[in-house]
Design goal:
Elements (H helix, E strand, L loop, with lengths): L14 H8 L11 H28 L7 H6 L17 H14 L1 H21 L2 H12 L5 E4 L9 H4 L3 E5 L2 E12 L6 E8 L5 E7 L5 E5 L11 E12 L10 H36 L1 E2 L2 E2 L4 H29 L5 H25 L11 H13 L4 H13 L7
Parallel strand pairs: 1-4, 2-4
Antiparallel strand pairs: 2-3, 3-7, 4-5, 6-7, 8-9
Bound molecules: flavin-adenine dinucleotide (FAD).
The site of flavin-adenine dinucleotide has 22 residues, from strand 1, strand 3, helix 11 and helix 12.
Length: about 400
């Protein structure tokens, strides 16, 4: 089954390009430059050939395929030379499609990569002063310095803004951190933990780059996850952990500054939600085109087509929303409510889409080897992290009405 779309003036699109067109009927991809598309093609080829064959096995074993980390880093997709001529920064739109491509293959890989390229990098670029950015950014872009973002705590998830309990006490040129963090993704592979902690002196939230092997830091992997099984999430204990002042991110001086980071991070997760839909849709379409019942392919039945249309419509509408969000960000427009709305809405569509994908694959849809099961399960974590639907909805509701409906 094919969907006739993608009238490109480029001659003879490759099979890979036609496949891309199948999940991008309105051709949002055409908004990318040729150079940006070329970077994404390199990523897609790597994911198809090197990553895809490993996914079902590693997902089932709940292990991360660490052998992919170096090759992924070597693709140099954070600041590729082709996109950074004359010191230009890659566009948000390119970064969004990079998240889309990763999540279209696997949500755990996307989460790992974006932990470095999105969460940790954003924390440093928005939170660091000029000297810190100059010192660390090249190392972050090359993965020589890896890190994760540690905000959530066991007793404070949605109410982290007011509740954050990890403490920071200044003692001369040093800070002493105490507290516990929860759910911190890929921390076991990271050199640094970007830890948000409340300054005992002024009660404000600050951020520190804590070397993961500092005395007093203890990581425990959270077992038994049914979603994003490949990602290793950690509980982190911080007991009298010492950090020097030059590892405090100088421009993060309140939770408002943390919220500024979340604005950008949430947009990235909205792109994941679109990518997961694309991956689930493609896997489902392939299956129903091949599987025969009542003497013909499932794809020929009206009710199966109804599901396919719902999936593709959800995906296309989600892409439209995140594309426009990134275009706005490329023009310097960053608003809490925009990224909150995109994150909440695309994740709701994602839940519908992966459920439809699972449904049309029948019993085989719960087998990890058929991919839709992996997308179906992994969607649940994406639905929750970077702010739940309820919390992001409250952010948008506050923007609409001017009234905060948060409990406090
Ligand atoms: P809770 O806050 O306990 O909420 C439970 C439910 O109550 C939710 O449905 C919520 O929406 C609802 N609720 C809460 N308050 C209200 C209200 N006022 N009105 C209506 N409903 C409400 N954090 C990090 O810092 N770094 C990471 O790398 C990271 N990675 C993660 C990876 C995974 C796989 C997961 C699952 C989480 C990760 N998180 C991370 C944490 C994530 O951001 C939190 O799980 C999320 O913010 C929700 O917090 P919670 O789980 O404590 O849920």
């Amino acid at each position: 089954m094919t969907i006739a779309t993608h009238t490109s003036d480029r001659s003879a699109p490759s099979a890979q390009e036609r496949l891309y067109a199948q999940c991008d009927p309105l051709d949002y991809e055409a908004l990318l430059t040729d150079a940006e598309q070329e970077q994404l093609r390199r990523l897609r080829t790597f994911l198809d050939t090197e990553a895809k064959p490993l996914l079902a096995d590693y997902w089932e074993r709940a292990e991360f395929p660490t052998q992919l980390i170096q090759p992924l880093a070597a693709l140099d997709l954070i600041t590729p030379a082709a996109l950074t001529a004359n010191g230009a920064a890659p566009r948000s739109l390119y970064e969004g499609f990079r998240n889309f491509e990763l999540a279209r293959t696997d949500a755990s890989l996307a989460t790992y990569y974006n932990g470095q390229s999105g969460l940790f990098r954003t924390t440093v670029t928005r939170g660091g002063n000029e000297e810190q950015i100059r010192r660390w950014l090249p190392l972050i872009d090359s993965f020589e310095m890896t890190g994760v973002f540690a905000l959530t705590e066991p007793d404070h998830g949605s109410d982290i803004a007011g509740g954050l309990a990890t403490s920071a006490r200044r003692d001369g040129d040093r800070w002493i951190l105490n507290g516990t963090k929860r759910w911190i993704g890929s921390a076991v592979f990271a050199d640094y933990l970007a830890v948000a902690a409340r300054d005992e002196a002024d009660g404000q939230v600050k951020a520190f780059l804590v070397k993961a092997d500092t005395p007093g830091v203890e990581l425990r992997t959270i077992p038994g996850k049914m979603s994003l099984r490949m990602v290793q999430n950690s509980d982190i204990e911080l007991n009298n952990v010492e950090v020097t002042e030059d590892f405090r991110l100088a421009r993060i001086n309140s939770f408002t500054d943390i919220a500024d980071l979340l604005r950008s991070m949430r947009s990235g997760v909205a792109w994941f939600a679109a990518g997961v839909q694309a991956g689930a849709y493609e896997a489902a379409l392939k299956y129903v085109s091949e599987r025969q019942q009542f003497g013909r392919p499932l794809a020929g039945f009206q009710m199966i087509q109804d599901h396919l249309v719902t999936m593709l419509s959800n995906l296309t509408a989600s892409l439209g929303m995140v594309v426009r969000l990134s275009q706005q960000q490329d023009q310097g427009v960053y608003r809490d409510q925009d990224s909150a709305m995109a994150k909440a809405w695309t994740c709701s569509r994602m839940r519908e889409t992966v459920a439809a994908a699972r449904e049309v694959v029948g019993g085989n849809g719960i087998l990890v080897e058929n991919h839709v099961a992996r997308f179906f399960a992994d969607a649940e974590a994406i639905y929750t992290y970077e702010g739940t639907r309820e919390i992001n909805t409250l952010v948008v509701g506050r923007a609409i009405t001017g009234r905060s409906a948060f409990a406090r």
